[in-house]
Amino acid sequence: MRINEHFAKLPGSYLFPEIGRRVRAYAAAHPDARVIRLGIGDVTEPLAPAIVEAMHAAVDEMGTREGFHGYGPEQGYDFLVEAIRANDYAARGIDIAADEIFVSDGSKCDSGNVQEMFAAAARVAVTDPVYPVYVDSNVMAGRTPAAGPDGRYPGFVYLVGDESNGFQPAPPPDSVGPVDVVYLCSPNNPTGTVATRAQLEAWVAWARAHDTVILFDAAYESYISDPSLPRSIYEIPGARSCAIELRSFSKRAGFTGVRCAFMVVPKDVTGVDPSGERVPLHKLWARRHTTKFNGASYVVQRGAAAAYSPAGLAQTNAQIAFYMENAKLLHAGLTASGFTVFGGVHAPYLWLRTPGGATSWDFFDRLLGECQVVGTPGAGFGPAGEGYFRLSAFNSRANIEEALARIQRQFGPGRA
Ligand code: PLP
């Protein structure tokens, strides 16, 4: 069999397996060390009782002749789609129809699969640093030659997020040439920063003027507490004709191990076929979704719907508040230890400048070796992540406090 040669252009392993390898090697050499993991962005609080109850009831239903469910609707059960439409959109004055919502088993799959709708020659823009799936899925699809010595793929347009723009790059100048599609993520993984309304307005205006589609990853929208910050791209007038939105129950309802997400594809978003005719992306995604996906599990969708019940909302909001209190403690403690810290106010991630200009992998090894704390090297998110480091606020309060105490002992005032 001839293989897809584009895989050879990818880095040897995805970022997190390499972190896992280094942590395992350290733990094997130091069997008594108690390593605290603030690396991978995985939730730690147990499922909310309202969700557990709904899933138990759904399992019981499935065990009866009347309540059994086989294959469900590919786009999701009406009870969940309707809860999404009413709570996430209609309640915020956003006009999204139920059949524009596609329930799936995760935003990682959605954000990796969405590129199947783009032309092979589509020009893709990504931020740098970036959630690696957006880049790697387009590399696998053959949309770029191999990366250059600077670690960048020549086929992509990179929009650098740095301290000068608060890690929220603006739309590119026309000199970069045409862009078919741009991936944006707010609140951002990895930098933990969030786009303001004015910044998203600038993106929507640019996308409409340049006939570019925005893929807006809002996996962390529930971590926004300032009501003046948009939680959906559709809060920006005009976005219905240029933006697809991705959302997940992973970080908002503790579903990383349960798996449920959705993608919104408004019927007004179109692309052009080779003859120049405009085609709604909704039509393509409906075709793709029904061909390659057989629906998320009934039990899981019942659990996701319970996240919108009054009890489910109260319980999941309390979990989010708990993680955000962790983020606040980390932010204050790291700042007091002399670190320059970004993000962590409307997102569960903090983005640190590495001390003394260390490379992000050197700082990773130092933090692991000296504090037994695991974080994520910024360079793993793209060349512009070099010199930065991501810490996640997903952990128990005791672990956050212990990690902070160790970091303060090692790096706090009077230490180098
Ligand atoms: N998008 C972003 C920006 C993420 O950080 C993550 C997970 O960390 C995902 C998508 C994937 O979410 P899911 O668990 O729904 O696959």
The count of DSSP E runs of length 2 or more, i.e. the number of strands, is 15
Structural class: alpha/beta
Number of helices: 12
Coarse shape:
globular
Write down the overall mean pLDDT.
96
Bound molecules: pyridoxal-5'-phosphate
Helix content: 25-40%
Q: Can you tell me the CATH topology of the largest domain?
A: Aspartate Aminotransferase, domain 2
State the fourth-level CATH superfamily of the largest domain. Answer: Type I PLP-dependent aspartate aminotransferase-like (Major domain)
Major pleated sheet: 7 strands, mixed
Distance between the termini: 55 Å
Indicate the low-confidence ranges by residue numbers. Answer: none
Strand line-up across the major sheet: 2-8-7-6-5-3-4
Strand content: 5-15%
In CATH, the architecture of the largest domain is 3-Layer(aba) Sandwich
Give the topology string: H per helix, E per strand. HEHHEHEHEEHEEHEEEHHHEEHEEEH
How many domain modules? 2
CATH class of the largest domain: Alpha Beta
How much is the radius of gyration in Å?
22 Å
Short structural summary:
It contains twelve helices and 15 strands.
Describe this structure in words.
The structure is a single chain. The protein is an alpha/beta fold. It has twelve helices and 15 strands. Strands 2-8-7-6-5-3-4 form a seven-stranded mixed β-sheet, sandwiched between helices. Strands 11-12-15-14 form a four-stranded antiparallel β-sheet. A hairpin with a 5-residue loop joins strand 11 (341-343) and strand 12. It binds pyridoxal-5'-phosphate. Pyridoxal-5'-phosphate is lined by residues 41, 106-108, 111, 131, 185, 189, 217, 219, 248, 250, 256, 261.
